[in-house]
């Protein structure tokens, strides 16, 4: 559930069912991933984060504490990096989906 930035507070949980975040303390957010590809993309970003928990029973689950970021930042990051969202909107990555200026 995405909320407008002005509605975000310390009790908000934002994101999708496979990647969400909530406020952990002053200047800290917790991000939980159920999607391995999105988690790898996040870890490549070199943010000031530490691993908090790892799910071992059932599906993929990783949780990280990120310092110095806010929930609004997470929503922007998720919008830029969410491949599942881009595929559902029709950005399939092949040339057939883009308009061509034929001469």
Average predicted local confidence, pLDDT? 76
Helical fraction equals 10-25%
How many alpha or pi helices?
A: 3
H/E series: EEEHEEHH
Shape: globular
End-to-end distance: 45 Å
| Number of domain units | 1
Find the structural class using helix and strand composition.
alpha+beta
Strand order of the largest sheet: 1-2-3-5-4
Strand portion: 25-35%
Low-confidence stretches: 94-98
Largest sheet: 5 strands, antiparallel
Q: Using DSSP, what is the number of strands? A: 5
What would you report as the Rg, rounded to the nearest angstrom?
16 Å
In short:
With 103 residues, the protein is an alpha+beta fold. Helix content is 24%, strand content 28%.
3D architecture notes:
By secondary structure, the protein is an alpha+beta fold. The protein has one domain (12-90). Helix content is 24%, strand content 28%. It has three helices and five strands; from the N terminus they run E-E-E-H-E-E-H-H. It has helices at 36-43, 71-81, 83-88; strands at residues 13-16, 19-25, 28-33, 49-54, 62-67. A five-stranded antiparallel beta sheet has the order 1-2-3-5-4. Strand 4 (49-54) and strand 5 form a beta hairpin. The relative contact order is 0.18. Residues 94-98 have low confidence and may be disordered.
Notable characteristics:
28% strand; 5-stranded antiparallel β-sheet; single chain; 3 helices; 103 residues
Q: Topology, pairings included?
A:
Layout: E1 13-16, E2 19-25, E3 28-33, H1 36-43, E4 49-54, E5 62-67, H2 71-81, H3 83-88
Antiparallel strand pairs: 1-2, 2-3, 3-5, 4-5
């Amino acid at each position: 559930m995405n909320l407008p930035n002005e509605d975000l507070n310390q009790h908000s949980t934002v994101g999708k069912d496979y990647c969400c975040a909530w406020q952990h303390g002053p200047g800290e957010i917790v991000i939980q991933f159920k999607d391995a590809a999105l988690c790898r993309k996040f870890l490549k970003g070199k943010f000031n984060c530490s691993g908090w928990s790892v799910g071992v029973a059932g599906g993929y689950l990783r949780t990280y504490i990120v310092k110095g970021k806010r929930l609004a930042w997470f929503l922007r990051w998720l919008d830029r990096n969410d491949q599942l969202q881009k595929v559902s909107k029709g950005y399939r990555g092949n040339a057939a989906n883009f308009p061509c200026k034929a001469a």
